[in-house]
Amino acid sequence: MKILNFGSLNIDRVYKLPHLVENGETLSSSSFQKYAGGKGLNQSIALSRAGSNVYHAGKIGEDGDFLIQSLVSDNINVDAINKTKGITGHAIIQVDAKGNNSIFLYGGENQTITTSFIKEVFENFNSGYLLVLQNEISHLDYIIDLASKKQLMIALNPSPMNENIEGIDLNKVDFLFLNEIEGRILSGEKETHKILKKLISYYPDLKIIITLGVNGAVYKDKNQEYRQRAINTKVIDTTGAGDTFLGYFLSMFFQKKTVEESLLIASKASSLSISKKGGSSSIPKIDSILT
Question: Do 154 and 140 touch, CB atoms closer than 8 A?
Answer without folding.
Answer: no
